[in-house]
Amino acid sequence: GGDFNQKIDYVFKVVLIGDSAVGKSQLLARFSRNQFSLDSKATIGVEFQTKTLVIDNKTVKAQIWDTAGQESKRLFRVEGNAIAIAVELLGQATVWYAETDRFICSPIRYRAVTSAYYRGAVGAMLVYDMTKRQSFDNMARWLEELRGHADKNIVVMLIGNKCDLGSLRAVPTEDAQEFAQRENLFFMETSALESTNVETAFLTILTEIYRIIS
Ligand code: GDP
Ligand code: MG
Question: From the UniProt record, which GO molecular function terms apply (predicted)?
Fold first, then answer.
């Protein structure tokens, strides 16, 4: 460790998906920078963080992508192949990203946004908030979207976040385990706040990806 000029053997793109406010951005902040914030701002557009680690003597750069709820996004085609994505926040469309500074022409289909996010992903974390039943019930839809867009060999992990709020639990561990088993997903309960299982969850998915790819 500590060598900033390491040669990178692999870059693994992993996407975070799930309803708003389940803790995707804080899981990423905890994993990549060991930070946590209680008044986390809603994610606008797509962000990614990287973290380099060593798996089986190989240097692996994890590139973890984070986004606001997909449902709030529209993709706009810009001149050439560049894209811009507008995120609707409180009814206002905010253009947050473009590969050129010339936009916007015409809205194109929702499906294209999603494809851009999933393109090249070798892992996905499906995150719900264990104190919000609805966020768990929506996992099936997120999984369907993922299966519709991602590579069929993508490694998927189901994450029940906010396990520090045990007294407010709305999703029994067994329900999640059963869903994970049925859908062939890894499963872990985490707390970004208390750091519980965050490192373990990322290491588990990255190690599995490595095992498949190497
Ligand atoms: P995102 O919309 O899925 O990216 O959710 P955020 O990461 O922005 O988190 C939404 C809210 O939940 C913020 O107030 C976070 O501080 C809080 N939060 C995130 N993770 C945890 C956790 O593990 N425990 C608790 N108690 N709160 C969390
Ligand atoms: Mg976020």
Answer: GTP binding; GTPase activity
From the list 27, 25, 31, 13, the residue with the least C-alpha distance to 68 is: 25
pLDDT tens, position by position, 124-136: 999 999 999 999 9
pLDDT one-digit tens code per residue, 158-201: 999 999 999 999 999 999 999 999 999 999 999 999 999 999 99
> What pLDDT does 119 receive?
85
Measured by CA distance, the residue closest to atom 22 of ligand 1 is: 162
* Residues contacting ligand 1 via CB (< 6 Å): 20-26, 37-38, 40, 43, 161-162, 164-165, 191-193
CB 83 within 8 A of CB 75: yes
